[in-house]
Design brief:
The chain is mostly helical and 247 residues long. It is built from ten helices and no strands. The chain starts with 5 loop residues before the first helix and ends in a 6-residue tail after the last helix.
């Protein structure tokens, strides 16, 4: 049984992004115009009306931009997995069966995290004391989600036989290290988000429009980084557990 080192896994993922940053930029920049336009549309129409009884044009635009964002993230992830694991360089925007399967599996994983999160929120609103029990359980769920996400690189490679069960079995005995990977990766992402919010808020005090545009551009760049970095983390885990590679 292989034992994972969370710090080595995260360090290896960051090193991969830095070493092959020119490839990461090449993959990500293809989606920059699409994501920036999506951001401008969302900024222009504003937040959806949660009290509306029927779908409005704002809701439809928000749904459309959300779907495009997921496809963009999955397309970049598939390209990155295939480059790191198979030395394959993508040409143009990748929109193939692997990307669609990757998006479907990603949505399943997101739902596995979202449903307990919503239940936790409802429970806390009803009885704040439940946070003492619910929050640790929600954090522990991150370890399980990380283990299941080891399947994603296999999807990117077109391997239809590798299931969530295989991903779980491959990482047997490594729940706590996988939880460590989850917490470290989120700490890095949230740190970047915090810096962006503080910088954008400060600029909005000087010029509202400039601050909003800066925040939008920063959010796009942060999402691009997160897409590549997150894919790199799962690539490292897949390489370690499935292909028996060392960091």
């Amino acid at each position: 049984m292989r034992k994972l080192s969370p710090t080595k896994a995260i360090t290896h993922a960051l090193k991969s992004v830095w070493t092959y940053r020119s490839v990461a930029i090449r993959i990500a920049m293809l989606w920059v115009p699409v994501m920036f336009i999506c951001g401008l549309l969302e900024l222009y129409v504003g937040p959806p009306d949660t009290e509306a009884q029927q779908l409005s044009s704002v809701n439809l635009i928000q749904m459309g931009t959300g779907i495009l964002s997921i496809i963009a993230v999955c397309s970049m992830a598939v390209s990155w997995h295939r480059f790191i694991l198979r030395d394959e360089l993508s040409h143009g925007l990748r929109l193939d069966a692997n990307v669609l399967r990757y998006a479907g599996n990603t949505l399943l994983i997101m739902l596995a995290m979202l449903v307990p999160s919503l239940l936790f929120l409802v429970a806390v609103l009803g009885a704040p004391a439940t946070a003492a029990i619910g929050l640790p359980a929600l954090v522990l769920l991150g370890g399980a989600i990380t283990r299941l996400s080891i399947k994603l690189p296999a999807v990117a490679l077109g391997n239809r036989e590798f299931t969530f069960g295989n991903a779980w079995a491959a990482s047997e005995g490594n729940f706590w290290p996988c939880l460590g990977v989850f917490l470290l990766s989120w700490a890095i992402t949230l740190s970047g988000l915090l810096v962006l919010i503080l910088a954008g808020g400060a600029l909005e005090q000087v010029n509202s429009l400039f601050g909003q545009v800066f925040t939008l551009a920063g959010a796009v760049l942060l999402q691009l980084f997160y897409s590549i970095f997150n894919a790199s983390v799962f690539t490292s885990l897949y390489g370690f557990f499935v292909e028996r590679r060392d960091f």
